[in-house]
UniProtKB/TrEMBL annotation, chain A:
Keywords: 4Fe-4S, ATP-binding, Bacteriochlorophyll biosynthesis, Chlorophyll biosynthesis, Iron, Iron-sulfur, Metal-binding, Nucleotide-binding, Oxidoreductase, Photosynthesis. This is Light-independent protochlorophyllide reductase subunit B. Component of the dark-operative protochlorophyllide reductase (DPOR) that uses Mg-ATP and reduced ferredoxin to reduce ring D of protochlorophyllide (Pchlide) to form chlorophyllide a (Chlide). This reaction is light-independent. The NB-protein (BchN-BchB) is the catalytic component of the complex. [4Fe-4S] cluster binds at residue 36. It comes from Methylobacterium gregans. One of its GO terms (molecular function) is oxidoreductase activity, acting on the CH-CH group of donors, iron-sulfur protein as acceptor. Protochlorophyllide reductase is composed of three subunits; BchL, BchN and BchB. Forms a heterotetramer of two BchB and two BchN subunits. It comes from the Bacteria. Pathway: Porphyrin-containing compound metabolism; bacteriochlorophyll biosynthesis (light-independent). The gene is bchB. Residues 12-410 form the Nitrogenase/oxidoreductase component domain. Pfam families: Oxidored_nitro (PF00148), PCP_red (PF08369). It catalyses: chlorophyllide a + oxidized 2[4Fe-4S]-[ferredoxin] + 2 ADP + 2 phosphate = protochlorophyllide a + reduced 2[4Fe-4S]-[ferredoxin] + 2 ATP + 2 H2O.
Automatic annotation (TrEMBL), chain B:
GO terms for biological process: light-independent bacteriochlorophyll biosynthetic process; photosynthesis, dark reaction. Belongs to the BchN/ChlN family. Residues 25-410 form the Nitrogenase/oxidoreductase component domain. It is an enzyme of class 1 (oxidoreductase). This is Light-independent protochlorophyllide reductase subunit N. It comes from Methylobacterium gregans. It catalyses: chlorophyllide a + oxidized 2[4Fe-4S]-[ferredoxin] + 2 ADP + 2 phosphate = protochlorophyllide a + reduced 2[4Fe-4S]-[ferredoxin] + 2 ATP + 2 H2O. The gene is bchN.
Length: 532, 420
């Protein structure tokens, strides 16, 4: 048993739903108890889909357990076929149905429907959402892709594997990747699963090679296609300018075409923006990166090599991809964090004391608690990260989006400089809250709170935890006893965005040297000691 | 899948339906219950799906050091390799060590824990002894046994046997059902003005739970408390039949049931309730113009559907196409059923696709449904009101009657407003 407040990934059948919902003409019959339909609203609300996911649930209840749940399941498959007339059906069990051992695959095949029926084995007590999506795509591809073609495929024809429903920016990434392939003179045969039908999967062998955009979802299917059909694949998520160039080179090599037309990209603004003098202040800003493996690794590269940050933390919640993340972390001279417990991630962020956090929805909240700027760069994400506007992460436009995303939470250089210059002014006095972080009181109240008791003042007090406002004041009171008054005054002259670090550094310095009273001298000795 | 419609004597056109049900499970009740009982913690014993559900339902609330969590079962627990009891004890002890402010711990059963027959009631007894003064109780919020609000029913029913015994005559009125604090305070003032001593279940903390006495009358504030009412009756309490306090008429009928039981004179009752009734009528009037004659369709969700249909038709002049409800308690809803227009179609249970077909054919002006259906139906051109908000928003009592009407009027106004 694992005590869990927050989970980065859902159970594996949610991954299967992401594949089914991405496709057309496919229906998923899920043996699951009443209540598991909650998953529908991930798609209808977070991704704002305009139709129900193509999923029929058996929604069995306690009274059904005494009867024949297997018959209930068969009836549900038959009814779903009659109503939706899909080209193919996938069937499986959710965690509870796994325990009652009805064998959905066998039961569905016994119905002898005139369409392919694919059984999914998704071990709910071992595996998670991304694995479920990967396994489902793999099973579909294996069942439906058919045999190797006699005729050699056109080298300029490729498949794109990986984009799903509820994918983080998958919709817009696809637009950018298509744009790159267009520039290279390549054509897309099938995109799967997003927008593909079971019949489309039958056309996969027509392509010469595969482009895997999201390894956690597409890799298993691509490896199968490589084995079964001899299709090579490219697996470089084109996130950031450098990775996009690598991607273009790899795809061009697979297709045997010249990469130059795609590399010549006038809309690639990140390189100039990062070189412009306003960005000088970004140099060595400490950044902590956490997310799914592919996004975390790609963002760390962008942060360090394209914007000039220093990566002080890199991690993922995907244990299956830990090797890649560990290797990338070594490149940044740090140890990777592989964890799916958000408390571990929170502790690591606190220890790393970054200036910026790049992470999931979860890290956004952690950063808010800690008063650190943050941007969301990976699933899981909330509704605001499924935006109406075009917002890719991939390709050159994606790099433009990333520059803005990574820099906006920080203050721009000029603003930072002016704030430092006028720090003695009334508006920028020692206790003024940093304007770009908003009011602290607001930051600590959970937003969108709608519980019925939420309106009571009593409830509000309890929720507004004493972590920041009161907590920081208390901390100041206990530690300020060892600060000499003149040193304390000097500390307040330091701009608020580095004041906390100066305080911590000085106190660490004093503690290590057993200095009982922090004087002006100590403050500047510490500053000299920690200068980088 | 439709069961044959049985002729009913109570004036409603009643049907029972079986099939796919698009509803929440009882675990969802934790999302509002943990806010009501301020020193309680809800530990779900279940799967990753359960944790994912609560996370999805609780939205961003999950980050405010919430007082709920999931002990996720893994392979070792299922294979019997790990002694489930020892594992649970370990998890609970770690939890209590982390949160020393917790006074009441609920072990909440889920589908997986029920199917593998993990005995949580015994675990609760064992842990209660070990962790005193923390009290540990258990109930099931599983989807196989409970639908959405029935989780609150199961939770309160688990509390009832634990409540202290009050001296007969000292107990006054008991109001059962978690209400928003602001609503509870309003009702507290009204009962005080009527001269009726009152306690609310649940109390706002483990130490503030009401004591019970045989013969004590109780009112249900919510229609989904069948099990809680049974548990209260088992302790000798007496249910006061009443409509539910939604809208002006519902609130007046609800208060009157208590006033009658405590022998409050009708003059005094009129005097105490007149200001509230007047304010509710004022607040409802503008909404009546918008909702009168509008055709409303309810998908099953919370068991609030029948009282809401009564409110919409009786106080706002809406026409009711179909009232879906996950479960229909004839006894507790007798007043509500009697107040529905004769022949109103009430469907207990659900066969989702068939019901969606009926809604498409009927093309109601407003469809009340869950978030899984709302956007898809909007995309088909039907105006919807997502039903979960009715549980998370204070809607009971005189002062909220206008707010309740506004919840239904707003989607219609919005549809008229938008030009693109």
């Amino acid at each position: 048993m694992q005590l869990t407040l927050w989970t980065y990934e859902g159970p594996p059948h949610i991954g299967a739903m992401r594949v089914a919902t991405a496709m057309r003409g496919l229906h998923y019959v899920l043996h699951a108890p009443q209540g598991d339909t909650y998953a529908d609203l991930l798609f209808t609300m977070i991704e704002r889909r305009d139709r129900r996911p193509p999923v029929t649930y058996t929604t069995f209840r306690a009274e059904d357990l005494g009867r024949d749940t297997a018959a209930l399941f068969k009836q549900a498959v038959a009814d779903a076929y009659d109503r939706f007339r899909p080209e193919a059906i996938i069937v499986g069990a959710s965690c509870t149905a796994e325990l009652i051992q009805d064998d959905p695959g066998g039961l569905a095949r016994a119905l002898d429907l005139p369409v392919p029926v694919i059984g999914l084995e998704l071990p709910a007590y071992q595996k998670k959402e991304n694995w479920g999506a990967s396994e489902t795509l793999y099973r579909l591809v294996r069942a439906l892709s058919g045999a190797r073609r006699e005729r050699a495929a056109d080298r300029r024809l490729c498949n794109i594997l990986g984009p799903t429903a509820l994918g983080f920016r998958h919709r817009d990434d696809l637009v950018e990747v298509r744009r790159i392939l267009d520039a290279l003179g390549l054509r897309v045969n099938v995109v799967a699963p997003l927008g593909a039908s079971p019949a489309d999967l039958g056309r996969l062998p027509d392509a010469a090679f595969n482009v895997v955009l999201y390894p956690e979802i597409g890799r298993a299917a691509a490896q199968y296609l490589e084995r079964a059909l001899g299709q090579p694949f490219c697996e470089i998520p084109p996130i950031g300018v450098g990775a996009t160039k690598d991607f273009i080179a790899a795809v061009a090599a697979l297709a045997g075409v010249d990469s130059a037309p795609a590399l010549d990209a006038p809309d690639s603004r990140l390189p100039w923006y990062a070189r412009s003098v306003d960005s000088t202040y970004l140099t060595d800003k400490r950044v902590f990166v956490f997310g799914d493996a592919a996004h975390a690794v790609a963002l760390a590269r962008v942060a360090a090599r394209e914007i000039g940050f220093r990566v002080v933390g890199l991690g993922t919640y995907e244990r299956g991809f830990a090797r890649e993340v560990r290797a990338a972390a070594r490149d940044h001279g740090i140890e990777a964090l592989v964890a799916d417990d958000y408390l571990d991630v929170e502790a690591a962020i606190q220890a790393a004391a970054p200036d910026l956090v790049l992470g999931t929805q979860m890290e956004r909240h952690v950063a808010k608690r800690l008063g650190i700027p943050c941007a969301v760069i990976s699933a899981p994400a909330h509704v605001q990260d499924y935006p109406a506007r075009h917002a890719p992460l991939m390709g050159f436009e994606g790099a433009n989006v990333l520059f803005d995303t990574l820099v906006h939470p920080l203050m721009m250089g000029l603003e930072e400089h002016l704030l430092g210059l006028f720090r003695e002014d009334r508006e920028f006095h020692a206790d003024a809250a940093p304007s770009h972080l908003g009011s602290h009181a607001v930051a600590h109240r959970p937003q969108g709170e709608g519980a019925r008791s939420g309106s009571s003042p009593q409830a509000e007090t309890v929720v507004a935890s004493p972590s920041e406002g009161g907590g920081k004041a208390a901390a100041t009171a206990t530690t300020s006893s060892i600060w000499a008054p003149d040193a304390e005054r000097e500390l307040k002259k330091i701009p608020f965005f580095v004041r906390g670090k100066a305080r911590t550094n000085t106190e660490t310095f004093a503690r290590e040297r057993a200095i009982p009273l922090i004087t002006l001298e100590t403050l500047y000795d510490a500053k000299a000691h920690f200068s980088r | 899948m439709n069961a044959p419609v049985r002729p009913e004597s109570c004036g409603i056109d009643f049907a029972r339906e079986r099939g796919q049900r698009a509803v929440f499970c009882g675990l969802t009740g934790i999302v509002w219950l943990h806010r009501k009982i301020q020193d309680a913690f809800f530990l779900v014993v279940g799967s990753r799906t359960c944790a994912h559900l609560i996370q999805s339902a609780a939205g961003v609330m999950i980050f405010a050091e919430p007082r709920f969590a999931t002990a996720i079962l893994d392979e070792r627990d299922l294979a019997g390799l790990a002694d489930a009891e020892d594992e649970l004890d370990r998890v609970v002890e770690r939890l209590i060590a982390r949160r020393p402010d917790i006074r009441l711990l609920f072990l909440v059963g889920s589908c997986p824990s029920e199917v593998i027959k993990l005995d949580l009631s015994r675990a609760a007894l064992r842990l209660s002894r070990r962790l005193a003064p923390v009290r540990v109780l258990s109930y099931s919020g599983s989807g196989i046994e409970t639908t959405f609000t029935e989780g609150e029913d199961a939770c309160l029913a688990a509390l009832v046997p634990e409540l202290a015994e009050a001296a007969p005559g000292e107990a006054g009125l008991l109001v059962a059902g978690a209400l928003g604090d602001v609503v509870e305070d309003q009702f507290g003032r009204l009962f005080a003005d009527l001269g009726i001593p009152v306690r609310f279940l649940p109390g706002r903390s483990a130490g503030a739970m009401p004591a019970l006495a045989p013969g004590q009358p109780f009112l249900l504030a919510q229609p989904f408390l069948a099990g809680t009412a049974r548990a209260l009756e088992a302790r000798g309490l007496r249910h006061l039949p009443a409509p539910f306090p939604l809208g002006e008429a519902g609130t007046t009928g609800w208060l009157r049931a208590a006033a009658d039981a405590f022998g409050v004179s009708s003059e005094h009752f009129e005097a105490v309730t007149a200001p509230g009734r007047r304010r509710a009528a004022t607040a409802l009037a503008p909404h009546r113009a918008r909702l009168a004659g509008r055709r409303v369709f309810f998908f099953p969700d919370s068991q609030l559907e029948v009282p809401l249909a009564r409110f919409l038709s009786g106080e706002l002049g809406a026409a009711i196409v179909e009232v879906g409800t996950p479960y229909l308690h004839r006894g507790h809803l007798a007043h509500e059923i009697a107040a529905l227009p004769a022949g109103t179609r009430v469907v207990e249970g659900q066969s989702l696709d068939d019901q969606m077909d009926r809604a498409r054919v009927a093309r109601p002006d407003l469809t009340v449904c869950g978030l899984g259906l709302a956007n898809p139906l909007e995309a088909e051109g039907l105006a919807t009101k997502w039903s979960i908000e009715l549980l998370f928003t204070p809607v009971q009592g005189y002062e909220q009657a206008g707010d309740l009407a506004e919840l239904f009027a707003r989607p219609l106004r919005r549809r008229e407003r938008l030009e693109v």
